[in-house]
Amino acid sequence: MPFEDQLGDAMRSTGDGFVPQDSRALLDGALTSGRRRVARRRAATVTGSVVALAVVGLGGAWAGGLVGGSSGGSGGSGGAAASVAPPPKSTLPDGVSVSAEQMIKNLISLLPQGKTSQKQGGGAGGPGGKSTTPTASVVFDDGRGKGAIGISLSTIDPAGQSAAQYVTCPSKAITDYDHCAAEVLPDGSRFMLFQGYEYPDRREETKNWRATLITPKGVLVDASEHNAPAEKGAEITRVDPPLTGSQMKTLVTAEVWKTTMAGAKVPRREPVPPGEPSGGSMQHALVASLPKGLKVVDQGNQGGYAFVVVDDGKGRSLVGMNVQPGMGDVPLQGTVSTLPDGTRVGEEQRPGEKGGAGVVWWTVDTIRKNDLRVVISAFNTGNQNSPATRATPALTMSQLKAIALDPKWDTLR
Question: Are strands 146-155 and 135-141 parallel, antiparallel or unpaired?
């Protein structure tokens, strides 16, 4: 089952093209709000259970590209150049009207001197038109090689968790990147520049640089560029993407995008899933549950999810867990047993799936009689995309099981 089907519209672009062998992945990136939606969550159980994480590293920019796929609309020559996928948990209310041609024109006007080709775009609104996400993308060549550049406009609850994900730099324990910086601008807008790679495991050296702006009114301007004429499957044509970090910032903060979105209303407040613990409470509880002798060297969290990277002096080990209400219909994997109180437990040890040499992945997946699911996984590396740093994870299967079965997870809801 394609990753996109499992997460629905919460994450259309996964970045590294990950198609899981099953849906148990805990630490592919960051927890997305899509898993909270019952219909999509149930769809994700087809091959085992729910995909809890995607490539948006815990409160961070998409590790995957904005540019790529086929979002429709065109304002120029054919060819699958670099159309733009709509971002997760964002909307475009009625009141915005812009053509695909105008979006492309605006994008080109903000680029430095050079040649553009494979122009694509998507408009929004218009007489009798349906609101969609305005997008524009081109392949740009400044004489030093072609690179795909794209931009999309939408709206998002500026105070919501999804907005925070866009403008918070991810942990390097979750995704590999060269540079990330976030700041609050004088007008109150939040901006983040992410300079990473299309594939977190670096199996190809295609770079993905992303600039994201969220205004106090909830306008989301999201741009991405690559050092190749396409997000995936294209030969690298230059060392870095065409625009510098400062030029990317200038691109997303341009007044033309705010003017385009002037009619958009601030989205309704993003709801908090009922019964799901906060990321902060998860983080505190996970750290408190760790066996003695483990030093926490990195950590992060999001609603219903928390992770730590620990080191016992024998190498780093990534540990992460999810707490999810209403998951009673999820089939468990591995060695499955039922405890006297009715709790179902699945235990499994398997190779890692993210490309790190020698990585192993140990998981304990539990579902209580009240349908609360508590899943914990540990790896023998501090980053799944990197080689193993030790023979086995820092926690034993018995220790993982004890943490997963701890009654405190019920009280955090």
Answer: antiparallel
Task: Report the distance separating Cα 342 and Cα 321, nearest Å.
Answer: 21
The residue ranges of DSSP E strands in 10-64, in sequence order, are: 30-31, 53-54
- The helix/strand/coil state of 378 is strand
Residues near 136 by beta carbon (within 8 Å), at least 6 away in sequence: 75, 84, 100, 103, 104, 106, 107, 119, 120, 121, 122, 150, 151
C-alpha closest to that of 295 among 318, 320, 280, 313: 313
The pLDDT score that the predictor gives to residue 44 is 29
Q: In this predicted model, what pLDDT tens digit does every residue of 277-287 receive, in sequence order?
A: 888 899 999 99
d(CA 131, CA 264): 10
Integer Cα distance of 300 and 298 in angstroms: 7
Confirm if 335 and 344 have CB atoms less than 8 A apart. no
Residue type, 93: P
The residue assigned the tokens 């909307």 is 91
Which residue reads 């890692």 in tokens? Answer: 352
Q: Which parts of the chain sit beneath pLDDT 70?
A: 1-94, 126-131, 272-273, 355
